[in-house]
Amino acid sequence: MSKINQIAWDDTILPFQLDRSDIRGRVARLDGVLDHILSRHDYPTPVGALVAELALLAALVGPTVKLRWKLSLQVRGNGAIRTLAADYYAPERDGAPARIRAWASFDDARLDDRPPFQQIGEGYFAVLIDQGEGTLPYQGITPLAGGSLSACAQTYFAQSEQLPTRFQLASGASRLSGQDSHWRAGGVMLQTLPAKPMQGDGGSGEGGLIEAADILQGAESEDWNRANLLLDTVEVLELIGPSVGPTDLLLRLFHEEEPRVFDTQRVEFGCSCTADRVRNTLSIYSAKDIAHMTTDAGIVTADCQFCGAHYEFDPHSLGFEATVDADGQPLSDRAAE
Questions:
Q1: What CA–CA distance (Å, rounded) separates 94 from 247?
Q2: CA 227 to chain centre
Q3: Each residue of 178-227: pLDDT tens digit?
Q4: Nearest-CA neighbor of 26 among 214, 197, 231?
């Protein structure tokens, strides 16, 4: 593959369908986006691996939803890795890129040599869909189970949507000849078309969670199992690239399933933080609370956990007892106008 073709597939999501088995899917490649996310923080290796996995999941899941604004994936646990969050922002117009951001919080002193997922501890995996102003956000939660974030996402789709779903993901530092090392990630998502609702309570998975075998029967089950067996043959370097393009990968894996591809979706790093959003977040606090947040220099500061943007505010302009506006003008003057 030429360097031009390598670049063409970087930071893209390729939708496809397997016509023989009525299974849809996506191939995602994150290059500059992931490197931008991880370069903003000095994450230890296990934390960085989980941030990469969640960002890749957001890239694969986000276009699945008929999304007008934002899909968020959040993980909370009681272990050394306390919080993981990734947001996918839908394209603002036809032809525009989608945007992705991700972040993690952790207790460095508690990290050890165990697999990254085990260091999250007990907690939950949440999917939040915000369609923007005038709509009610949706939230679905599933327990942490299955040994990986991708397994948690599979459980979410089986439990909440009764859609058998499979993810095969890989990420890591990559170095091409003559270039510096940087992060890359790639993955494939398979998902059945909507099936009949499952009858009965509980499933055959861990703790009674629903799995694909509980939903699909007969020919649908055979098609699903066959596609999964083919996906099992994928290699890490095929997922991450850049030597193997997504279309070549699909033909290698699923040529007998009659794969059909659709238009690619470009993705880039993007953050929604603004000074006004920070002000709105702090609007629930009293003047006394704001005083506790004020530094010795007489300002209130805030840093975006996702992009690292730094904001400074006049404390008198914050909270529900603010006395001046963002420009420092007395609010009493505005009320008198």
A1: 23
A2: 24
A3: 666 678 899 999 999 765 554 555 565 666 666 766 677 678 889 999 99
A4: 231
Q: Are 318 and 300 in contact (CB under 8 A)?
A: yes
Closest to 102 measured CA to CA, from 126, 80, 82, 74: 74
What residues pair up with 83 in beta bridges, in sequence order?
Answer: 76, 105
Per-residue tokens: 100: 């992705």
DSSP-derived letter for residue 27 is: E
70 vs 72: CA distance, rounded Å:
6
d(CA 132, CA 49): 30
Q: Hey, CA dihedral for 121, 123, 127, 129, is it positive or negative?
A: negative
From the list 136, 140, 81, 145, the residue with the least C-alpha distance to 108 is 81
H, E, C per residue of 264-288: CEEEEECCCCCHHHHHHHHCCCCHH
DSSP string, 128-179: EEE--TTS--EEEEEES-SSSHHHHHHHHIIIII---EEEEEEEEEE--TTS
**What's the first-to-final CA gap in the chain, in angstroms?**
66
Taking only the tens place, the pLDDT of each residue in 235-274 is 998 998 777 889 999 999 999 999 999 999 999 998 888 8
Contact (CB, 8 A) for 190 and 196: no
The tokens 């009610």 sit on which residue?
Answer: 136
* Confidence (pTM): 0.85
Cis peptide bond upstream of 115, omega within 30: no
